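Much of the work behind modern protein science is quiet bookkeeping, done one molecule at a time. Below is the pair of lines this work produces for a single protein:

***
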Amino acid sequence: MMKTNLDRRHLLRGAGALIALPALESIGFRRFASAADKAPAKPPKRMIFLGIGYGVTAESWFPDLNDKGAGYKLPEGLKPLARHKNDFSIVQRCKHQFSRQAHWGSTYWLTGANQYGTPGQSFSNTISADQVAAAQFGKHTRYTSIQLGTDANDRNGHGPGNSLAWDQRGKPLSAWNSPLKTYLKLFAANDIPLAQRRAMLAEERSVLDSVMIEAKDMQRGLTKSDTDKLDEYFQSIRDIETRLSKSEKWMDVPKSRSPLEEPDTALAGRSEIEMMYKLMVAAIQTDNTRVITYREPGSRLLSSIGAGGNPHNVSHYRAGSETEVSSRMRDKAHSELLGGLIDQLKATREADGSRLFDHVALAFGSNIRSIHYLNNPPTLISGGGANLKLGQNLVLNAGTPLNNVWLTLLQGVGVNAERHGDSTGVVSELQA
């Protein structure tokens, strides 16, 4: 009698002439190795930064400074996160020592830069923490990093740019400013034929080469100031070249199949943030990127939850006033939405069966506490990706650089960084 209990792997190989294994994409991330011959690869690390610009309601968001450690009482603003209390930590008493602009909480949150750090200029910035990670993690994904934001009429915090991200030259990186645009960038098929796209890329390279030649011809006889400007111009050209190389590398790789339906164009405020959070999870579970920042909307969030005022005057709330009521409503909405995001990260499984949450380092906050106060900004850290001590109310020495927290996260996920901005070292109290 013919033996029927054939080894499944042998069967798949033997039947190769009849049916080929499909190109599989794991729930957690894409692997280009053979699914039959290799165990699931170790899931990669990811980073998510969620910035809220104008801060929080200081009296109801922060745990008591004297109520330290794991047994702290959740304040009103964080109560919607009660089910996740063991999976996030609040880090208190940090500060960006160079912070001067009271309403630029989205501009310097991830950099801690000195606005007047460049002589002769009224504005200067440096690389943001997410881009430090992206330089290392982005080599493996279609998008080196993803910046999410909102339109110019609803930026949560003043300052240039519509994202939280700043490149190595301290220049703002643009953001995708709607759920629909984000969805299309991630998952919509490119209707332009591959040959035509290759021709367009070749034309861009040709133009870039011509520009570079002309720029080099201008170098002779320039002043020091003009030379510096030209050097910055050359760096811009190199940045474009990097982008073109990335486009060429991924040109013939089909986009991931979306785990979500196409978003409604009418989403605004709370529903907009909720959908952006879903898209974040989709982006990292399909390994389109491993680094995401989101500069969240302000005015539309307030409107969508029935709160009065605008982000600016709500940040200047007065005790017992309508603006304080709105500020507390906003905090509650943010915590509810963040709780939903953590739910998703915990529910999504990697190829090896672990939770996506276990491989993500997530930060939520602003470098503004409230009103014009820049000390002790709201800083919430979550996710298992950086091997941190979660479930804590950590009260650090007053004035501890916020960049120490970012350095701790970066090193925790394996980024090769000895320092970030004005950091003086890692936060040992945050390390597990």
